Amino acid sequence: MRHIIYIVLFFLLPTAVCAGEYAGKVVTVSGEPIGYATVYPLDDPVAGTATNDAGEFRFSTNLPPESKVIISFLGYEKQELPLAVLTDSATIILIEQPIALEETVVAAKASKQRNKRKQLATLLHSVYVQMEKDFSDNNAEYRIVSDVRMDSEGEAWGMEQMIAKVVNLPSQGREGRDSIQVAGEFCKRYFKQSIRQLADTIYKSQTLENMNKDARRMASAIDSGVVVHQGLWAVGNIRYDFEKYVNDLKHWVVSNESEGETVLTHTESHNWFGIVKYSIKRHYILDSETLSVRRFSEQGTLNVNIPFGYKLNADQLQMLNLLNMGEDQIEKFRLRKANGTVSLNTIYQRRDGHIYILEKNLKADATMLGTKQMEIPVQVRATQRVTSLKTENVQPMKKSQMTRRLPRQIVEIY
Q1: 0.70 surpassed by pTM
Q2: What is the side-by-side order of every strand in the sheet holding 409-412?
């Protein structure tokens, strides 16, 4: 399907809107427009943009027409096309890619041979040994495009796209984690006009003058916007999680899938006095022959039941303005329950005999229930794509690179 779309666009459409200017429309297979899809040239991500509610986009770049452009949206297969095909009449169709969103289905019945605890322990140990070979202890430097989008009741209110440099330092990690350095290089925040004023009010209220001493110190030490993208990159550190749970045999399940893949699943559940309950399923999708990791899928559920309710603080209440709650509703809101699900997927690439990250996808859905059945639905969608990878002579970044304030370019989505 991808190649068919490419051929049709390439031969039937003119080459460009005008010198250096490119445009088009992004839709689903059924023709529905895809809003907030990201579009950026691979060699010039800063020139990229996002589609509006009608799926339309327009941007300029000085790259040659044969340069590649990436069109993507969470839950759909990424398209890579030459700039030359992007004209006002160009329509790019994105194909659904459920593997990036849905839980990996593990067969209900595994073979008796594999269900034997001894055989399972042997398999888990073999996978752990292979991970030690596949994941390098040397530093790695990534250039990434990171998109974070927030929705309420299915309507996106805004998105932030950051181009950043990430350095992984395995030898400097603590408590079973790689040390991760993230420095934002360029950032755009996309807003709808209807909420821009509310957003501006919130940002203006968070000035250094309104912060206490500790908050000012923290604000001057690190760019809080970068922290969001850094946190997304850090989740799903499977090498160390696997090591932590490898001997927990009673919570592992193994089954074979098609196309030479084996899925190992670990389940973890906790319940604190009935107030907080959560469970996590970690799926390791492996090459059946080599036992190397191809993908990692993690699903979590969270339920919070607060007996007497909890009044959100002033900053939290203010953020609810973005969800179009009235002031009277906000003042009366008391948090009683919160339910949520999180799906994380990581796709890997192999380079120089080792495995590195290629792409991360995250989907989180939560509902906060207050007194008098007041509900606030919130959805977060995020995609992080690697545009380049360096594995030799990688040096740690200086503190000044990671703590400088990164200007945000505000872009009206329509």
Answers
A1: yes
A2: 252-256, 261-272, 276-287, 293-310, 335-351, 354-370, 375-390, 140-152, 155-169, 179-191, 409-412
